[in-house]
Design a protein that fits this description.
Length: 226
């Protein structure tokens, strides 16, 4: 049997990878890593765990249609992993949450290879923990979105997290304010350059891609901006 695992490695802190994820990486013959223009953040997070492994980078350029690349990557993985071997693809956060891995997984279903997914801690889970602010309380509705807000859904939500806010930040904040949400901006959560901002002008001036806005109508610790 050939095995392939999608491993969520968390938001950045090396210690936030799960024990199952760690053991899978240690037991894998091949580690597949999304290629980065500079140093790979995903690669740096797991660097201590994959020493001596065969590492293969796969390119999925941001902002481009990668449907052909997913198919090509699946072919590469299928040709690389031999009988009795294990391969693992690492992904930031959780593999089933706005992840490149999902599209790769779908392509891999076409081959005779066992595919298993190992969940990871998401950036919004980590941000809520960092802020000591619950994502949901009993009776709450939580809304997770990726860069754009649907007003109709937001009106039904008690809390919301918007990922990848750097391109549409001012509009997002205006919508949150109009709907009575208190919000906070978290950049690179759990990483060495993590930053938490509450002031609107400071939030608008920060343009890090790896950022999110977390908001609630009723907060617990009363630290959020209005």
């Amino acid at each position: 049997m050939r095995e392939f695992y999608g491993v969520g490695i968390g938001p950045g802190d090396k210690e936030l990878i799960t024990l199952k994820g760690y053991n899978t990486l240690r037991n894998s013959d091949y580690i597949f890593i999304p290629k980065s223009k500079g140093e790979s953040l995903a690669g740096s997070i797991v660097s201590d765990y994959i020493e001596g492994k065969n590492i293969i980078e796969i390119e999925f350029p941001m902002g481009e249609s990668n449907s052909d690349r997913y198919a090509e990557a699946a072919v590469l993985i299928n040709e690389t992993i031999k009988e009795g071997q294990i391969g693992a693809f690492i992904t930031l956060g959780d593999p089933m949450t706005y992840s490149t891995y999902i599209y790769l997984m779908i392509e891999l279903f076409k081959f005779d290879i066992k595919v298993e997914t190992i969940p990871g801690i998401t950036s919004f889970n980590a941000a809520a923990a960092c802020l000591n602010e619950p994502i949901t309380l009993k009776g709450d509705n939580f809304y997770l979105c990726d860069g754009q807000i649907d007003d109709d859904i937001l009106k039904k939500a008690s809390s919301v997290c918007i990922l990848k806010v750097n391109k549409n930040k001012e509009n997002i904040i205006n919508i949150l304010e109009e709907n009575g949400f208190k919000y906070v901006y978290v950049r690179r959560c759990t990483q060495k350059d993590e930053k938490v901002l509450y002031d609107k002008d400071e939030i608008l001036n920060d343009n890090d891609y790896m950022s999110l806005i977390f908001a609630r109508k009723e907060t617990v610790n009363n630290l959020f901006s209005t």
